[in-house]
Amino acid sequence: MGGVLEGVRVVDFGRYIAGPYCATLLAEFGAEVIRVEKRDGSEDRFVAPVGEGGEGALFLQVNRNKKCITLDPMKPEGQEVMRRLVATADVVVANLPPQTLRAMKLDYDSLRAIKPDIILTTATAFGGPGPWSDRVGFDGVGQVMSGSVYMTGAGDPPYRAAVNWVDFGTALHCAFGTLAALMERAKSGRGQIVEGALLATALSFTNATLIEQAVINVNRVPTGNLGQTAAPADIYRTRDGWVLCQVTGHPLFKRWAKLMGEEDQWLNDPRFADDISRGNNGPVISERMARWCAERTTQEAVDTLGNAMIPTGPVLSPQQALDHQHIRAAGFMQDVDYPGLPKPAPVARAAVRLSETPGDIASRPPTLGEHTDRVLAELGYNAAAIAALRQSGIV
């Protein structure tokens, strides 16, 4: 495949998002990633199915560039396959609870006994130490326990985000940690554990809100889309849709006031002297912006605001996002074929570009067990041994 991580082998025991997407990012920049699944397929393979085989949209996103083998690691013969595989690996990715890692012999001590310089990248729901360390959880747990959900919407009921930002944020942290561990190993020869946690990610993303609360005890309450620490910052109705305008910092506020043609009114009023004052008086500023947007189409509003160098964007449906001229022109997504899909899947490339060693979606996600025979042969199993493993239900 090539890439800056060429020569690095990753064994991916990940499930759902945090582990698999971490491994995907490594694969996109050249690592060889072998995904290990249950014989009948891991449950995350079938979330939001879009193809004839039941493979889901999420699986197609976070498993490109990988090989796939099936394995039952709880049986002795499966443990031997896993031992041979780990012996060839640089990194093991497994976002599984600690007790599950121990049961599968994927804990760090077991892995290090096979390969002393192995790197184990893992992610749990709650991290540790702590009384909830062994509990399981999904993205939403991090959202609700970080203050994010409390501050979203109008408060009754609270709303979680529809996208899994905690999971993907944890994957990003884990990929970063894995790269740091690989750099350290190159210097010292030592492996180590890279540990992410959904709750830790969520707290890091909401940290500024938590700092504000701890330091000045502001006790903020949710205000829908209306910003609280600057203005105008809201989502406004246009003649044919909705548009976001987000002004933070006095230079931007001066541009906005000039665009309104009312610089004296807004720039000389002490209620609007700085961001926090504008946030405190946000409804006044938002009312003016709402009237301005209501007179224009969405396209007129975003073009006018964009040309004035004021942060703005239209509220797009999923189909509108796929069709948007900038998203298409920028090449953020790549059409990827997969067996049984009625049309190619638009898979988002890694959201970072390297000028000299760019990442690449070089291969589609694997079908279930697609590379089992090839990988086992590389580990020293002959055709008869592979057939015996299949007969015994190991692979």
UniProtKB/TrEMBL annotation:
Q: Which Pfam families match?
A: CoA_transf_3 (PF02515)
The keyword Transmembrane helix is annotated on this UniProt entry: no
Key words, A-Z: Transferase
Q: Does the keyword Protein biosynthesis apply?
A: no
What species is this protein from? Bradyrhizobium niftali
InterPro entries associated with the record: CoA-transferase_III, CoA-Trfase_fam_III, CoA-Trfase_III_dom3_sf, CoA-Trfase_III_dom_1_sf
Recall the taxonomic lineage recorded for the source organism. Bacteria, Pseudomonadati, Pseudomonadota, Alphaproteobacteria, Hyphomicrobiales
| Stretches that traverse the bilayer | none
Q: Name one GO molecular function term.
A: transferase activity
Q: Which Gene3D superfamilies match?
A: Crotonobetainyl-coa:carnitine coa-transferase, domain 1, formyl-coa transferase, domain 3
Protein's name in the database: CoA transferase
Origin superkingdom: Bacteria
